[in-house]
Amino acid sequence: MASTPCLCKDRGCTKSGPPGYAGLLGDKSVEFLKDPAAFVETTCDKLQSRVFLTRLFMKQTVVIADHKLISNFLSHSDKDFYNGLKDFSDLFGHNIMFADADEATQLKKILLPLFGTNAVQSYQTVLNDVLEDWSQNLNLQKTINLYEEFKNISLAYNINIFMGVRKTDDEEFFTSIKELSSTHWHGVTSVPFNISIPFFGNGGYKKAMDAKKKLLKIIKARLAANGSTFFEEFRNNNQESLSEELLYNHMLLFSCAMIPKGVGSVLAMFFEMGSKWKHLVESDGKLSEEDLDCVLFEVLRMFPPFMGGTKVASKDTSVGDYHVPAGTAVYYSFMAAMRDPSAFIYPDDFMPGRWKNLEDRSKNLGFGTGLHGCIGRHLTWNCIKEIVRYSMDNFTITYPDISPPEVKLLPVLRPKQPHGFTIARRT
Question: For position 190, what pLDDT does the model report?
């Protein structure tokens, strides 16, 4: 295969460019949106490279499906790249997702203690109360859509932690937040590229912006009236570092639908894959701590809730061995990276045992990595594990005979046709 000219277009450059084509008439947006995972893997196979060049949404784009390169890129790209979702920053307001390297570093120092081990332990009673309420009100006379159930549990948990409102005390408030956060979320639809608003339709984006304004108004009013331990620590300890706008933008981020959808995704796929790990269940109907971790890590590897992301070069720079001119997008696929044969043996097989070595767990990119990796990973991971434990302790769940299910990837990975689970209480 002939080498591709370097993207820098310097005639004296001896480097090659990534294989592929990014001409103006070669836009692949439709193919990408139809099935992002298949598009990436098919192109990798065709070009015999896990890094390739294409054009997506009218922008020259370097696609990375190589695990090692993605890990390196996310750990060292913050100075030369900005978040490709910047076009949608109005939906969330400025926050750590869109901050440059210096600001993100400062924000991370402020936020990490609020999501650390000690903080997570202090929220345990809240999560237990949410799970008890869920159990008491669960209708077991019909099959259960676990994706929807677990989304609601996570949302109730988040609203309690971040806004200080218990779902059992104000069902109307919970329903209002649930509906508004869903409308708000779908303004983005998680397509990881700089796309102009008309791509989604002005009506949907306008509704999302209206929902954002209502959410911010509700959040401010509730926190002014009741407050929350999280909010008080966040505000009082950092008055000189954070403006009021930045403070509430982060409260919006933590209270929106992103976290519940991610939690619901992992948990739904965990139980959808039950036939693959039920042989690990012990005589008491539970998974050991090690097996639970290994199964969840494998679910997260094969079915990351958010398929990837994008960054855009703010200046002429490089990615791996390739020059990348300013304005070029770099799409990194978590799903492809975690099925990279050079990083994972039998990448398409469900093998929880691959995670028994604790040192290997850093290879899992389900929560991202680098400066802009998920700051709430400890809170989220604990929430996921506690929901699994509670469900297996209190219920007998019949798993699907066939797995994995067909999945949707946008806006978040979830079963295309969720299995209706038959659930019975343990006696």
Answer: 39
